[in-house]
Design goal:
OB fold (Dihydrolipoamide Acetyltransferase, E2P); elongated; alpha+beta; disordered N terminus
Length: 329
């Protein structure tokens, strides 16, 4: 029969509620990929969470299960794929967003009793997934990206062994307060703080990084969209990623946010004289979505900006970004 056990992960106010039904979990059963195809999962093993997995740094436990719930079988793959989600932590969209993501990328290891088979990874409860999606999904949408299919909450359940949302002593789910609405919020790509660690996190999570000179801006504030046409001759590529020749020829970038959001530096530039626009440079980071180049970070880059100039000289610390061969077991 089911019984409850609570794991304290040492995170302030974060409690993981574990519902255990070992008759369902401990047996070796086939697993299924997100597309429905069967996947023969290798035997589970416990390994140390690598220091390079920044997504799960200070999550509250030190050992994780491989393969994880995203079917990553090596630590290098976990680290490389997890990097894309690090900037989401800084958005503070949900108090349990790290707990949720780490339950997928680095599931907590619970050693099996002597003589018994190793348990597989503990999935998040559906209620935890839905709670995080409700708060963090809109943040991703503000950047122009949908909630990823691999995080589809319908694949999880509230039955059996699972990691739940925060609960208080009375068993009530603790939902973080909704952020108060702002009449003219700043668009997410325009909010970056110029700090070395922040720049590195965003650089590693981005598919392309460019220094551009703005040629033209189309403001569609009512739709929360700004189209930037960059000067093709005046740019520096720090990270090319998936950009193709036609992308370089067009150099059309999209800054996407909620309706009527503001981007002060860009909005001021849009109404400036052409002579000023031709002197204005910007740092742009982003991801390619279909044929659209969507901006996730944009910041003015004046000549005397020491932080950006120093970061550029070091190529934004790109050698510190995880790759498939940078974290082995």
């Amino acid at each position: 029969s089911n019984h409850k056990a609570i794991l304290s992960h040492g995170i302030a106010t974060a409690v993981l509620l574990i519902l255990i039904n070992c008759s369902e979990i401990c047996q070796a059963t086939p697993k299924y990929m997100a597309d429905g195809t069967m996947y023969a999962r290798p035997p589970s093993v416990c390994v140390d969470i690598p220091a390079s997995l920044k997504l799960c740094r200070n999550v509250g436990y030190r050992r994780m299960v491989l393969p994880n719930l995203l079917n990553h079988e090596s630590l290098s793959e976990v680290v490389q794929q997890g990097t894309s989600f690090v900037p989401l932590l800084s958005r503070n969209c949900h108090q349990n967003v790290q707990v949720f993501l780490c339950s997928l990328f680095a599931p907590v290891c619970i050693p099996a009793p002597p003589g018994e088979p190793m348990n597989g990874p503990i999935p998040p409860c559906r209620s935890l997934c839905e709670s995080v999606e409700n708060r963090c999904g809109p943040i991703m949408l503000e950047h122009g990206f949908m909630w990823p299919p691999m995080l589809n909450c319908s694949q999880f359940s509230n039955e059996g062994l699972c990691v739940s949302p925060n609960v208080d002593s009375g068993g009530t789910t603790l939902e973080p307060p909704m952020p108060s609405p702002s009449t003219n919020p700043v668009c997410p790509p325009c909010r970056i703080q110029l700090q070395t660690d922040t720049l590195l996190d965003n650089y590693c999570a981005s598919e392309f990084v460019i220094k551009i000179r703005v040629k033209k801006i189309k403001n569609k504030k009512n739709r929360g969209i700004r189209e930037i046409l960059a000067d093709k001759k005046k740019r520096v590529i720090y990270k090319n990623g998936p950009l193709e020749e036609r992308d370089h020829q067009r150099m059309k970038l999209f800054v996407i946010g909620r309706k009527r959001c503001t981007c002060p530096e860009l909005d001021e530039l849009a109404s400036a004289k052409r002579s000023r626009r031709t002197r204005s440079y910007y740092l742009v980071m982003g991801r390619k979505d279909g044929r659209k180049l969507k901006v996730t970070v944009i910041h003015a880059w004046p000549k005397n900006n020491r932080i950006l100039n120093r970061a550029a000289r070091n190529n934004f610390g790109s050698d510190q970004c995880p790759s498939f061969d940078s974290a082995g077991i």
